[in-house]
């Protein structure tokens, strides 16, 4: 069976001028900064004018643990936004921007798929409006200013061995994980060991996504701890006097980007932290703006609910004062079969028993999201190879968990294929059943917060951490950072730290390899297992097939 590729479908889109999309939301043309004809930034002045307006209802779209079979979380987010508009609701979509690293690696883009896409697809998955480049530049300006301060006399007394601020770039490059800088003699500075993270793991990315306005942005940037003195006194970004220049570089990037779906419905695409190594959510400013402009806001959190949804609830909602009305968990029959032990090559054959065997992964995500007090509905993202018996097995299992599973065909049919889910979401959201509360209180000790996530969300027996890590957490508590939430950096493929352990494992341990203080963003990062904050390219990267065709169009993006 032959299907058009996502990029072919996107290229045929009948886009409207971005000013028309803004008009749908009541955004005057003078408050849109166009980037071409089909994308624009929304002015800070207009956003400030929305203060006092009533908020719409916030819907989170999350998913089971990702598998090579594909789940379609962003596709479902876009489809649900279109579906809500189709049934007469004023809905706005809020998703993250795509990182170049996965685009040229193996994961692909972040614009949805099939008939449920946000466009312009090529620009969104490449340079877009330059936000990631601005974040990269601001981050590395701080890096340069730290080394420059040390070079010109080091009046702050920075211990070169205790510079904790790494550099970033928006590309997968394992060769840069651990490097030595300033080699080559006196004129190049003082050699020291450091490394690169990918831009989406940058604290500057997290800060931009959690800031309410430019003033908040500059304060948070100033709060970044970049190094320590020999007596372990922290050195802040504001001590280096980089926060003002960094804010200047980020002033346009702070403005949310407005684009449209294939069905010409509005979508804010802003910010892009990964959920496996960062907090994995669309920006607070975009989400809050959308809530003032729409009856319903559909947003996503990265990867599976064990990472993205937990961080959405415990970090974003906690810090921004957001209260989700309902959550959608995306699953596929194919992924259930993979969790049930079926090889990718055999997914096309009906296997109801494997579906049943794989469903506990979905069941644990349902229970986890419910534990935050948020009502749940399951979206079965339909593939043409799914059989009625397999779909029925998923529905029966979900019903036994006290939730409803709805078959969705938005990939092939757009909004017409997801009306049932849209109606179910409205029913849940308007029932007032949401009683949202974070997983742990602010005052809980930091290590106990890590244990709470590991035991209650991952169903681990224990957290393994060296004394040095526990002592570091206690030191941060003594320094006034004990109230911060935890951002777990962990493989997205499993509830455990072993990416090959599918299903709903129990009895495992969560080893914490390193902890990092993100004082500006306002959380502690716990790096678990073998997760890397700078990914590498696969053996056969997508970059090998991305090219311009004879008409000058991009091919190979997905």
Automatic annotation (TrEMBL):
It comes from the Bacteria. It catalyses: (6S)-5,6,7,8-tetrahydrofolate + formate + ATP = (6R)-10-formyltetrahydrofolate + ADP + phosphate. One of its GO terms (biological process) is tetrahydrofolate interconversion. Its EC number is 6.3.4.3. PROSITE patterns: FTHFS_2. ATP binds at residues 67-74. Pfam families: FTHFS. Keywords: ATP-binding, Ligase, Nucleotide-binding, One-carbon metabolism. Pathway: One-carbon metabolism; tetrahydrofolate interconversion. Belongs to the formate--tetrahydrofolate ligase family. HAMAP family: FTHFS. This is Formate--tetrahydrofolate ligase.
